[in-house]
Design brief:
By secondary structure, the protein is mostly helical. It has 3 helices and no strands. Helices cover 52% and strands 0% of the residues. The chain starts with a helix and ends in a 16-residue tail after the last helix.
């Protein structure tokens, strides 16, 4: 949940949201986490380099 909150998809443009729909509705949560982290430019396993787990 923390990762989705940090991603702030609700602040994206309609065009961006349309491109995100396949990611945000994917049933494979690990794939969702991986893609969101990639789009945010975060290191694996941390949020903004703070060392917080992304599993919540």
């Amino acid at each position: 949940m923390e990762l989705a909150r940090k991603f702030r998809w609700w602040d994206k443009s309609v065009e961006e949201i349309n491109g995100l729909i396949p990611i945000l509705t994917c049933g494979d949560l690990e794939k969702v986490r991986t893609e969101l982290k990639k789009r945010l430019g975060w290191d694996k396993g941390t949020i903004n380099g703070e060392g917080s787990a992304l599993d919540s």
